[in-house]
Amino acid sequence: MDILKKCYDFDRAKKAIESGNYPFFQALESTEGTEVVMNGRKVLMLGSNNYLGLTFHPKVKAAAQKAIDDFGTSPTGSRLINGTLVIHEELERRLAAFMGKPSALVFSTGMQTNLGAISALVTKNDVVVTDKDDHASIVDGCRLGYGEVKRFVHGDLDQLDRILAKIPEDKGALVVVDGVFSMGGDIVDLPKLVKVSKAHGARVYVDDAHSVGVLGKGRGTAAHFGLVDEVDITMGTFSKSFASLGGFIVGDTDVVDYIKHFARSFIFSASLPAPLTMAALAALDIMEKEPEHIERLWENAHFMMKGYRELGFDIGKTQTPIIPIIVGDDDKCFELWKELYDGGVYTNPVIAPAVPQGMALLRTSYMASHTRAQLQRALDVFAKAGKSLGLI
């Protein structure tokens, strides 16, 4: 058997491209944040995680540009060897203080953060328990660890309780959960999850990729619920609200130091380039000093939730600026995506296995920098497309 046979046999993407209904890997020719140019025309971007709209903030751009002058384009080495810059350490100190934890560690990507931190913590005699809707980086981080992996139905914390109750006392247990779930936009019931986990001696790890900059005055899910001291480890990314690239964890100093010395994705990856590091630092400054960006983000999110519900779309149980438009059928989902795209609105179609079979949806997300006129235009295009396809 030829190991590459599966590659030559895969034709689903080719057929979709030929039909004109292929929504993925669409190249941006230019971007202003809320609007982008694709295939020579301007479209409204409702598919970005640029929640605070900071990618074109003058302070962020200036910080990144100055970093090139001061440090060049890349450290060309891992943090362990020659890649640690003083600005990496400054960013870690600032993040720890911002998140209310003793220490922080910066990784080169968000994916690497979960891969490295979870696999370093979950060893042979340990059990890691995850929500079935957790991000793929959590799933893969668990696979890389040597411990046992268990999962509970999305949001079913009673099942989590039963799972934890069966773990022998001589095994370590880690519960890993998204703070905000990236497809549904719902927020974890962190108070109950913490209560259940602590009752069984399990530690809690929260992935705040979509929460930092959004919830808890920007400080994430634990701050939102007043549980900063009860969450053992929080993970975040720079590729969303921080308008950069990279990831981080915060927690107790001994825990962070252990991960620093055992996370393979940290030790064996080149460190975060200076322009991205300084962009994240500048974004952090803005979060601390300009809270109006977070306020505008929530005003826009509530406006769109109300608008979609009044039109008759099913937006599930979202509680955040991530608003899914639940369609159900895969083909109908792609048809809606195409109608919207033709109408000048870009969204993200999501089908199984990223969501359960029969739950295909368009993932939309909003920025503080979206204007009310842009959002109303999006609702008008959605209304026309939804009626055309018989969805509303």
Task: Give an account of the 3D structure.
With 392 residues, the chain is an alpha/beta fold. The chain has two domains: 5-31 and 291-388, Aspartate Aminotransferase, domain 1 (Alpha-Beta Complex), CATH 3.90.1150; 58-289, Aspartate Aminotransferase, domain 2 (3-Layer(aba) Sandwich), CATH 3.40.640. It is built from 15 helices and 14 strands. The strands form three sheets. Strands 4-10-9-8-7-5-6 form a seven-stranded mixed beta sheet, sandwiched between helices. The protein has a four-stranded mixed beta sheet with strand order 1-2-3-12. α7 (157-165) runs parallel beside α8. The longest helix is centred in the C-terminal third of the chain and has 20 residues, at 292-311. The mean pLDDT is 96.
Count the domains: 2
Poorly predicted sequence stretches spanning 5 or more consecutive residues: none
Strand order of the largest sheet: 4-10-9-8-7-5-6
**The CATH H-level homologous superfamily of the largest domain:** Type I PLP-dependent aspartate aminotransferase-like (Major domain)
Count of discrete alpha- or pi-helical segments spanning 4 or more residues = 15
Main sheet summary = 7 strands, mixed
C-alpha geometry: globular
Order of helices and strands: HHEEEHHEHEHEHEHEHEEHHHHEHEEEH
Helical proportion, percent range: 40-55%
Rg is 21 Å
CATH topology of the largest domain: Aspartate Aminotransferase, domain 2
The portion of residues forming beta strands comes to 15-25%
CATH architecture of the largest domain: 3-Layer(aba) Sandwich
* Overall pLDDT score: 96
- Report the structural category: alpha/beta
Head-to-tail CA distance between termini: 49 Å
- The number of E-state strands comes to 14
